[in-house]
């Protein structure tokens, strides 16, 4: 099976064909399923647990280690360009979407 994106980054570095192709593989998988998930009424949130620097590390304070993409797709999301969710808001936000009781912070601006 293809190497996951995190493994490819650690083993080969960021500016490599292996890393880019691993990300492309994930993109292809998402493209194959996304419309079916939306048609079935799912809400889709795609993100990462961390970034990575050029030294193949992710436990520091550099923006590329801390800042990650966030894609939200579905009618439960506001698509408000001013929404500024923190990574620590995502757990509570997902719980809100699923109707699960929680005491976590959420990003209300992200939701309809």
Tell me about this structure.
This protein is mainly alpha-helical. It contains four helices and two strands; from the N terminus they run ααβαβα. The protein has helices at residues 5-12, 17-39, 63-66, 90-98, and strands at 44-47, 70-73. Strands 1-2 form a two-stranded antiparallel sheet. α1 runs antiparallel to α2 (17-39). The longest helix has 23 residues, at 17-39. The radius of gyration is 16 Å and the shape is globular. The relative contact order is 0.13. The mean pLDDT is 91.
Question: What's the gist of this structure?
Answer:
The protein is mostly helical. It is 39% helix and 7% strand.
Annotation, overall tally of beta strands: 2
Give the SSE order as H and E letters.
HHEHEH
- Spatial ordering of strands, largest sheet: 1-2
- How would you classify the helix and strand content by structural class? mainly alpha
User: Roughly how many Å is the radius of gyration?
Assistant: 16 Å
- Average the pLDDT over all residues and give the rounded result: 91
Overall helicity: 25-40%
Total helical elements: 4
What general form does the structure show? globular
| Major sheet summary line | 2 strands, antiparallel
Low-confidence stretches: none
Strand content: 5-15%
Distance between the termini: 38 Å
């Amino acid at each position: 099976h293809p190497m996951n994106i995190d493994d490819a980054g650690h083993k080969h570095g960021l500016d490599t064909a292996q890393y880019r192709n691993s990300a492309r593989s994930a993109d292809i998988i998402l493209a194959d399923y996304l419309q079916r998930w939306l048609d079935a009424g799912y809400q889709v949130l795609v993100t990462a647990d961390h970034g990575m620097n050029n030294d193949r590390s992710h436990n520091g304070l550099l923006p590329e280690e801390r800042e990650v993409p966030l894609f939200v797709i579905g009618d439960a999301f506001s698509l408000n360009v001013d929404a500024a969710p923190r990574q620590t808001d995502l757990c509570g936000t997902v719980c809100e979407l699923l109707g699960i009781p929680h005491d976590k912070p959420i990003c209300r601006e992200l939701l309809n």
